[in-house]
Amino acid sequence: MINIALPKGRLGEKAYGILEAAGFECPSIKEQNRKLIFENPEKGVRYFWVKPSDVVIYVERGAADIGIAGRDIILEYSPDVYELLDLGIGKCRMAVAAKKDFCDRRDRTLRVATKFPNIARSFYNEQSRDIDIIKLNGSIELAPILGLSDVIVDIVETGKTLYENDLEPKQDIVDISARLIANKASYKFKNSEIREICEGVRRNLGV
Ligand code: PRP
Questions:
Q1: DSSP β-bridge partners for residue 112
Q2: Separation CA 53–CA 177 (nearest Å)
Q3: Smallest Cα–Cα separation from 179: which of 94, 84, 77?
Q4: Alpha carbon of 103 to ligand 1 centroid (Å)
Q5: This model's pTM is above 0.90
Q6: Ligand 1 pocket, 163 CB below 6 A?
Q7: Sequence-ordered list of residues with C-beta below 8 angstroms from that of 61, at least 6 positions apart, any chain
Q8: Which terminus of the chain has fewer CB atoms gathered within 10 Å of its CB, N or C?
Q9: Which atom of ligand 1 is least distant from the CA of 155?
């Protein structure tokens, strides 16, 4: 049985759709209930829904053999896992954004609000920029509006959230998409099963 960690939410549903189309379906996952684990012994797969940022933890520690995680989460947590495939879904970018009239003064410490402190730190380290990280857990866009920070480092997908809150992207940091990741030991000991899933997905996506 291959244990697969799916990120709860829209991205996870899309990811499951890809695995289903590749021949690794699990019909019980579509039932309306609050179960978190679903399996299809015939196909040798067991799926479970986890918080998106927890997928890397489940996979790194081997509670899941494989999983789907955004590149944002992978860069932020640097888990010791194999990255097998870019699924080409969940595309967005990590960017610095601020109020439209924000004027950066390099002689001052920059206050940066973000859910991604490691990504933000390494981005500004490369520029030898002195920053003060303010770690938030959501609604990051509020920070510059309320004067809590000068800029934010956050995910931009359509740009609508920034636009509707009178903010604008100032600098792109990195492109993001969802990746299929594998636990290192599982990749060794369940190699043929994992490769079969990986190849099925690859064939189906045409990549
Ligand atoms: C993400 C991100 C932005 C928004 C960007 O938020 O933090 O707020 O999506 O999307 P857009 O460019 O299409 O407007 P998410 O929905 O994950 O919520 P949270 O960060 O507030 O938890």
A1: 133, 151
A2: 14
A3: 84
A4: 24
A5: yes
A6: no
A7: 183
A8: C
A9: 2
| pLDDT per position as a tens digit, 6-47 | 999 999 999 999 999 999 999 999 998 889 999 999 999 999
* Beta carbon of 137 within 6 Å of any ligand 1 atom: no
Instruction: Supply φ then ψ for residue 2, to 5 degrees.
Output: -100, 125
Q: Output the CA 155–ligand 1 centroid distance in Å.
A: 6
- The sheet carrying 151-156 orders its strands as 131-135, 110-114, 151-156, 92-99, 167-176
Tell me if 78 sits within 8 A of 191, measured CB to CB.
no
Q: Is the C-beta atom of 138 inside 6 A of ligand 1?
A: yes
Question: Which one of 155, 160, 163 would you pick to mutate in the ligand 1 pocket, going by the greatest count of ligand atoms within 8 A of its CB?
Answer: 155
What pLDDT, on a 0 to 100 scale, did the predictor assign at position 128? Answer: 94
